[in-house]
Structure formats: structure tokens, C-alpha cells
């Protein structure tokens, strides 16, 4: 957890590597994943860099791999996943064999695909020919011929009738797509002026295009006509509509013999197609065993060459120079990686690492594990912390699920969330391999430990609220005792019980279950949860302000402790901290067991009214026999608190500008006394301690400080009120759960019938379970999650979090492969 307290210390380093060992060294650094390289060739585009040829070569290999993967998917072959045996980056010499193997496989697949398309095209043509021969059999029967003779005799134009003695009838047989048939028929009618007799048969089975794989329905047609000129016109129309024309003998015997020949050829083609598919499957099955390994190797090789393009080459062309950010704790890891890279190629000149000084802000790197990663992502989603700034994610591990549970406190709902989170945590190895879950599942699985803790804390707050699916648990009994007789209770549905006479001490844990039956349950819970939300809010903000001191001490901003922290913490505690204290004091001072009238609960003043009067310097007359204030000199103490809090505003507003102005005058006097040399040294020294204000005019500094002061004063008030969402959502969640139980599930218990009651209970239980999970657990849980996130991002982190950094993005093969996998 020490790594989570603040970001890791970073160092800007120079790498000096021999060109022969550059590839192996960068490969070792990619496996280590602890170096972020900087681009030293900003002035060059991608095509002007040294290793652009190698990068394009890797891209060509990736294209071939994608093509083979597409063929594997088309054939239904699943690639084996590489979990443990992930290959390392290949040697540049090994890539030649891989390139040749992929080239051979691609060419073989292209040839197989082209042969398959040709065979399927021949098969489809023979199938169409068979359909034409079989379905036109009826067109040439005696009955069809007689019908055609009648057509000749009664033709509208009489052209065929006039020419009947000069020649025999001709015909054209073929097949056409069904959607083109209507236009085709109209075109034939127009070009022939009605002297074409067209017969057609719709085919039921669709035809699949060999090239695209799209299915289409087709129709067999026969066009009868007379004359060679009309025949040429009809063939042109068939070509224009992409209708396939097939030879069809007019003799029954010839057609029968032709059908036999076509069927024999189809059987031979089927055999050849099956053999081609088997050969294709064998080739793909052989390639699939190594394709995942090849893909990882090519991706690593491409990443290495892409990183080498960020290096600079010295004028002697004998050394490659790179710059990178390295966590200081990983310096030995980087040095060992460079040593392994040099030894791998047998280089006698070792590569070395040189730390350089810089004023540039380093990247922010928070080392996390699978438990803390989810909480760190919540913080980074708002903004990346500044370098070496206090990391709020460490405290979010506890505060986030706790504030969520304050709004979501229910034993039953918390148990459902706990089981869901525990299921994802226990089976995380198997669930991490699951693909196709979508973005929502990825978010849920990434936050599995957050869900687990939210469920655990919701169980705790559910016990405190004594709430189980809107029902109370009578574990310790009740602390209230009723001494009325039966007739009094029966005749008086509403009775008030004095805690002095009807209670036996403080309840053991949480809320007494008797409140479930009380008429003033809402009033009691309303006051109870509202005060808790204010107490938690002030405590949370006070902790955030205190954590800012850690930043001031670490960055040695000693003046900020006096100029920022002290006025801020005084303003917060003297106003809202005092209000939270008075809530506890009120709970202790006023009790039903005392005989002093002014200390009884009836004389307890409202803390909210007291706070308003305190800010407005007003007073409210108390009830008879009671006192306005809870203790002596409270009025004068409150006036002093308000006066000090008001003085904190000009304190925050003018202290920093005055401090900067005084420092500038001192530096100017030193420059005038010591001359130019002192001037340069003074500017250098002041640059480190001036906190970036040396070049800003005093007017801008005053405006910026005024903005910060107004923002803090107003936000302290609004943020305190914002924590009331803890009270509002908790009360709404409990009431919605009670309404769902009372208006849906409990209705079934009111039916006395033995035959209707149990089935109705079963059905209503299913409906109640569905709405409980869908509304109370998922929707209400998401609402509470978002409100908790807002309380951390705005109310808490604004006190300590500058968030002006940028993330550390190391060169890591693991991260590259994971990003490619998520993109796929």
C-alpha cells in the first residue's frame, strides 16, 4: 500500500545502445514494461524514419495473418488461446522463415479459393442446366404444343400466323433471377410486338453465388418464337438482364440423355468439391496451430521497430540514443534488460543508462495490483494526479464503499451485491477469458473488488439500520417495554411511550426493531440519517483538507501551510465542525432520564435553527422553562467562531499575494546589491521556490487568489449541503423497498384460500424478486454509485487534488497485446 500513497518517483534517462543490440534490448524492455520512451525525431514524419521499411513489412505480415484468420472464421475453426506460453519477440532472421511460410499459406489459400469459386461456378451452371432441362419437360408435351398452336392461330398481330408456313418454331431456354422476371417479360413483349410465347417455372431452392455467397431465387423460362432476327434480339435481351441461356434439345430422347449426362457430371463435381473442402480444412487446421503465436510475434516485432523509430542516431552511425522515463525503483530492471539484450547478440560493448536532470514534469505512475486497480481507475477517470501528489485512491478503498453503503444500507440487497462480487472474484480466472460480454460486462468485471466491498459495507450499514428487504430483524429483542393493559392498547391505536419509563438501556447494535411498528418511524429516521450525513460529510471534507498538508510538506511549500491550510481548516471547523459537534452534544445533554426540565428532550433546540441564528447573530426565544443555548457562554463562543471564520476570508485572499510581493522585493534588492552574477543565481534559486509566480503580474495573482478564495468559501457551504444526498438516497431506498414489499408481495398473504394463495405467493415472489434486483439493486445501486463518485470527485478531491498530471504509458508488450485484444 506504500506505493499507493503517492505516485512513484521518476527519472529521465538516456539510453546508449549499439545498433546491433538495439532490437534485442528494446525487446527486453518491452517484456519488462517499465520504460516510457520519448520521441527524439519530432521533426521527421513516419516515412522519413530509419525503420519505416521494417514497420511496413510487419504491417504486410499482419495483413496476411488477418486474411488467414478470416478464412479460419469462415471455416468455423477457433484459434487456440495462448495464456501461459506467450512467445517472445522473434529474431530478425527468424522473421524471414515466417514471412515465407505466411506467403506460401496465403498463396495456397488464394489458389484454393479461386479453384473453389471456379468449381462452384461450374456446379451452379450445371445445376441451372439440370433445372432448365427438368422443368421445361412439360413445355414440349403434346398438350403444350397444342396450346402453342392455338397461340399461333390467335396472335394479335398475326405475324407468327403469316410466317407459319415458311419455317419451324424456335425457342430459347434459360434461367433468370426472379426479381428481374417482370421487366424481362415486358422487354420481350416490346421487342417482339407480342410474338413471343414465354413459359416459366419458379424454383423453390435458392442459388448461392460462388463469389459473394449471397442467395437468390431464380426462375426457369422458355421463349418460343419464329425467325432468326427475333432470336438474336431475344439473346441480346437475355444478356442485358444477365439471364443464363442454356442449350435445350426439342426431342424428348435427347433431353433425357442430356439430363443423365448432366447428373453424372454433377456427381463428379460434388466429389471434387468435397475433396477440395477437405484439403482446405487440413491446410487451415495446420495453420491454426501456430497462427496465434505468429500473430503475437509480428505484433511484438512491429512494436519494437516502431519504438526504435523514436531513437536518435549519432553522427558516427555507431550508437543509438533514446530518452525515456523510468521509475527509480525499476532502474536495476532496466539495466539488467539492457545487459541481456547485449549478451543475446554477443555484443562486447555494453549498453548503459544515464540519468539526466530536467525541469520537465515527469509522468504520474501509481503501481497497482488487481485489487487496487479498480479504485485507481475511479480516480484517474476524473483527472491524473500531479507528479508525487497524494493519491486519493488509497483512501477511496474505504471511503467509497462506506459512503455507498450509507445510501444503500440493506442486508438483503447488500447480500445480493456481495454474492455477485464474490462470484466474480472467486471465478475471476475463468471469467477473464470470457469473450463477447460487451462493454457493460467489462466494466462490471473490472470493478469486481469494488462491488465486493460495496456489498460488505452495505451488509454492515443494513445491520445498523436494521433493514432486511424493508423488514426489521429482531436479533437482540427490543429495548422498549409496554406496561399498558390490553384494553388501553385496544382502544388507543396510537400511544406515546416515554423513554424514561418504557426503555431498558441502550440498544445493543443498530436500530431497535420496534421502530418498524411506530407511526413516527419516518420522522425518527429522517432526523437520524440527516444528522449522520452532515457528520460524515464534515469528517470527510476535514480529512481532505488535512491531507493537503501532506502535499505542502512533501513539496516544501511551508508558507502554504500558514496561507492555505490554517485558514481553510479554521473556516471549516469553526462553522460546520462546530455544528457537527453540537449534534453529538445535543444527543448527550438531553435525556429522558433526568428530572431537570431544561435537560429533557422537549427543551432540546434545533441544531439547524441554532446554526442559522449563529450566522445571522439572531436569537430565538425558547419554550417556557427551557433555555435557548445548550451551555453557558455559548452565544459569545459562537460570535467568536463566526468572527474568526470571517477573518479567514481576507487571510486566504491577501496572504499569498503579500508573500509573493515581499519575496519579489527581496530578490530585487539582492540583484541591485550583488550585480549581474547574483542576479543570475538569484533567478535560478528563485525559480525553484517562487512556485511559478515570478513572471505573473500582481493583478493576475490577486484575481487568481480571489477566485480560489471565493470557490473555497462557497464550496464549503455547498459541499456540506451536498452530503445530504446520503440522507436523501438512504431514506428513498428504504421507502421504495417498503412500498415494493407492501404493495406487491404482502398482498398474497391476505388471501385465505388454500388453492389460490400458494400459487399467487409463488407468482408474486417471482415478480417481487425481479423488481428487487432490477430496481432496488441495479438501478438504485447505480444511482448510489454515481452519487458516491460525485462526493469523491468534487467534495473530497477538490480539497487535496490538483490533477494536472499525465499518465505513465510504458512500452509494454502485455499492454499492447491487451489493447489489441480489446479492440478485436
Concise account of the structure shown:
The protein has helices spanning 2-5, 19-32, 52-74, 94-135, 142-153, 159-163, 181-192, 228-240, 252-308, 331-344, 373-380, 393-408, 411-426, 428-432, 438-446, 448-465, 486-491, 499-502, 521-554, 558-589, 607-616, 634-689, 698-722, 725-745, 757-796, 813-823; strands spanning 10-17, 36-38, 170-177, 197-202, 207-208, 215-216, 218-225, 244-246, 312-313, 320-327, 352-356.
Shape: flat
CATH architecture tag of the domain at 137-247: 2-Layer Sandwich
User: What is the CATH C level class of the domain at 137-247, in words?
Assistant: Alpha Beta
Structural class: alpha+beta
Distance between the termini: 34 Å
Oligomeric state, counting identical vs distinct chains:
single chain
Helix content: 55-70%
Count of helices?
26
* Total beta-strand segments: 11
Mean pLDDT: 85
CA-based gyration radius: 43 Å
> Which spans have pLDDT < 50 for at least 5 consecutive residues?
142-167, 676-691
| Main sheet summary | 5 strands, antiparallel
Can you give a write-up of this model?
The chain is α+β, with helices and mostly antiparallel strands. The chain has a domain at 137-247: 2-Layer Sandwich (Alpha-Beta Plaits), CATH 3.30.70. Helices cover 62% and strands 7% of the residues. It contains 26 helices and 11 strands. The strands form 3 sheets. Strands 1, 2, 9, 10 and 11 form a 5-stranded antiparallel β-sheet that branches. It has a 4-stranded antiparallel β-sheet with strand order 4-7-3-8, sandwiched between helices. The protein has a two-stranded antiparallel ribbon with strand order 5-6. The longest helix has 57 residues, at 252-308. The radius of gyration is 43 Å and the shape is flat. The protein starts with a helix and ends with a helix.
Amino acid at each position: 500500500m506504500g506505493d499507493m500513497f503517492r505516485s512513484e518517483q521518476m527519472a529521465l534517462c538516456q539510453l546508449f545502445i549499439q545498433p546491433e543490440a538495439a532490437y534485442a534490448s528494446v525487446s527486453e524492455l518491452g517484456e519488462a514494461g517499465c520504460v516510457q520512451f520519448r520521441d527524439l525525431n519530432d521533426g521527421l514524419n513516419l516515412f522519413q524514419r530509419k525503420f519505416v521499411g521494417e514497420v511496413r513489412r510487419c504491417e504486410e505480415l499482419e495483413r496476411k495473418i488477418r486474411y488467414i484468420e478470416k478464412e479460419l472464421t469462415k471455416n468455423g475453426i477457433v484459434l487456440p488461446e495462448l495464456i501461459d506460453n506467450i512467445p517472445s519477440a522473434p529474431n530478425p532472421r527468424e522473421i524471414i522463415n515466417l514471412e515465407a511460410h505466411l506467403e506460401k499459406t496465403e498463396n495456397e489459400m488464394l489458389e484454393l479459393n479461386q479453384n473453389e469459386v471456379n468449381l462452384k461456378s461450374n456446379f451452379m451452371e450445371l445445376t441451372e442446366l439440370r433445372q432448365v432441362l427438368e422443368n421445361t419437360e412439360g413445355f414440349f408435351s403434346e398438350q403444350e404444343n397444342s396450346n402453342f398452336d392455338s397461340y399461333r392461330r390467335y396472335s394479335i398481330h398475326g405475324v407468327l400466323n403469316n410466317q407459319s408456313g415458311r419455317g419451324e418454331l424456335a425457342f430459347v431456354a434459360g434461367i433468370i433471377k426472379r426479381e428481374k422476371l417482370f421487366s424481362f417479360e415486358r422487354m420481350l413483349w416490346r421487342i417482339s410486338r407480342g410474338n413471343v410465347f414465354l413459359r416459366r417455372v419458379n424454383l423453390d431452392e435458392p442459388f448461392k453465388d460462388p463469389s459473394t455467397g449471397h442467395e437468390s431465387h431464380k426462375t426457369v423460362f422458355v421463349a418460343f418464337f419464329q425467325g432468326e432476327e427475333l432470336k438474336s434480339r431475344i439473346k441480346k435481351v437475355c444478356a442485358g438482364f444477365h439471364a443464363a441461356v442454356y442449350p435445350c434439345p426439342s426431342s424428348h430422347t435427347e433431353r433425357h440423355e442430356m439430363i443423365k449426362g448432366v447428373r453424372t457430371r454433377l456427381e463428379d463435381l460434388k466429389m471434387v468439391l468435397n475433396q477440395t473442402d477437405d484439403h482446405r480444412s487440413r491446410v487451415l487446421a495446420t495453420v491454426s496451430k501456430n497462427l496465434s503465436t505468429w500473430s503475437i510475434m509480428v505484433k511484438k516485432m512491429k512494436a519494437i521497430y516502431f519504438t526504435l523509430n523514436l531513437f536518435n542516431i549519432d553522427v558516427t552511425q555507431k550508437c543509438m540514443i533514446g530518452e525515456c522515463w523510468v521509475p527509480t525503483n525499476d532502474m536495476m530492471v532496466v539495466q539488467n534488460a539492457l545487459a541481456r539484450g547485449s549478451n543475446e547478440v554477443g555484443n562486447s560493448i555494453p549498453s548503459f543508462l544515464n540519468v539526466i536532470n530536467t525541469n520537465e514534469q515527469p509522468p504520474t505512475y501509481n503501481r497497482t495490483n488487481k485489487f487496487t486497480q479498480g479504485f485507481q481507475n475511479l480516480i484517474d477517470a476524473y483527472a491524473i494526479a500531479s507528479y508525487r501528489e497524494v493519491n486519493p485512491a488509497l483512501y477511496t478503498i474505504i471511503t467509497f464503499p462506506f459512503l455507498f453503503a450509507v445510501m444503500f444500507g440493506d442486508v438483503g440487497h447488500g447480500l445480493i451485491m456481495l454474492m455477485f462480487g464474490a462470484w466474480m472474484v472467486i471465478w475471476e480466472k475463468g471469467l477473464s477469458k470470457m469473450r463477447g460480454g460487451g462493454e457493460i460486462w467489462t466494466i462490471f468485471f473490472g470493478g469486481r473488488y469494488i462491488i465486493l466491498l460495496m456489498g460488505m459495507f452495505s451488509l454492515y450499514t443494513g445491520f445498523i439500520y436494521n433493514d432486511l428487504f424493508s423488514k426489521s430483524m429482531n436479533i437482540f429483542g427490543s429495548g422498549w417495554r409496554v406496561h399498558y393493559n390490553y384494553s388501553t392498547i385496544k382502544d388507543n391505536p396510537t400511544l406515546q411511550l416515554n423513554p424514561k419509563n418504557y426503555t431498558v438501556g441502550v440498544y445493543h447494535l443498530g436500530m431497535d426493531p420496534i421502530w418498524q411498528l411506530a407511526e413516527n418511524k419516518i420522522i425518527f429516521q429522517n432526523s437520524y440519517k440527516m444528522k449522520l450525513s452532515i457528520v460524515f460529510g464534515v469528517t470527510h471534507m476535514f480529512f481532505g483538507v488535512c491531507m493537503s498538508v501532506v502535499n505542502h510538506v512533501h513539496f516544501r511549500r511551508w508558507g502554504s501551510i500558514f496561507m492555505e491550510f490554517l485558514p481553510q481548516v479554521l473556516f471549516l471547523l469553526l462553522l460546520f465542525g462546530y455544528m457537527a459537534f453540537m449534534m453529538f452534544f445535543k444527543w448527550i445533554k438531553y435525556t429522558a432520564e433526568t428530572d431537570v426540565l431544561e435537560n429533557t428532550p422537549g427543551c432540546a433546540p434545533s441544531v439547524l435553527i441554532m446554526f442559522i441564528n449563529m450566522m445571522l447573530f439572531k436569537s430565538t426565544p425558547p419554550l417556557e422553562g427551557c433555555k435557548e443555548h445548550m451551555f453557558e457562554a455559548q452565544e459569545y463562543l459562537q460570535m467568536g467562531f463566526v468572527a474568526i471564520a470571517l477573518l479567514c476570508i481576507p487571510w486566504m485572499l491577501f496572504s499569498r499575494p503579500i508573500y509573493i510581493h515581499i519575496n519579489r522585493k527581496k530578490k530585487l534588492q539582492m540583484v541591485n546589491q550583488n550585480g549581474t552574477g547574483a542576479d543570475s543565481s538569484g533567478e535560478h534559486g528563485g525559480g525553484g521556490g517562487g512556485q511559478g509566480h515570478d513572471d505573473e503580474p500582481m493583478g493576475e495573482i490577486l484575481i487568481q487568489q480571489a477566485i480560489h478564495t471565493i470557490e473555497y468559501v462557497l464550496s464549503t457551504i455547498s459541499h456540506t449541503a451536498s452530503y445530504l444526498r446520503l440522507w436523501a438516497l438512504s431514506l428513498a431506498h428504504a421507502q421504495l423497498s417498503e412500498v415494493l414489499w407492501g404493495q406487491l408481495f404482502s398482498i398474497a398473504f391476505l388471501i385465505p384460500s388454500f388453492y389460490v394463495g400458494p400459487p399467487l405467493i409463488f407468482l408474486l415472489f417471482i415478480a417481487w424478486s425481479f423488481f428487487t434486483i432490477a430496481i432496488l439493486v441495479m438501478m438504485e445501486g447505480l444511482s448510489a454509485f454515481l452519487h458516491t463518485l460525485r462526493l469523491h470527485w468534487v467534495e473530497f478531491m477538490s480539497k487535496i487534488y490538483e490533477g494536472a498530471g499525465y499518465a505513465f504509458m510504458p512500452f509494454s508488450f502485455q499492454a499492447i497485446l491487451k489493447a489489441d485484444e480489446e479492440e478485436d
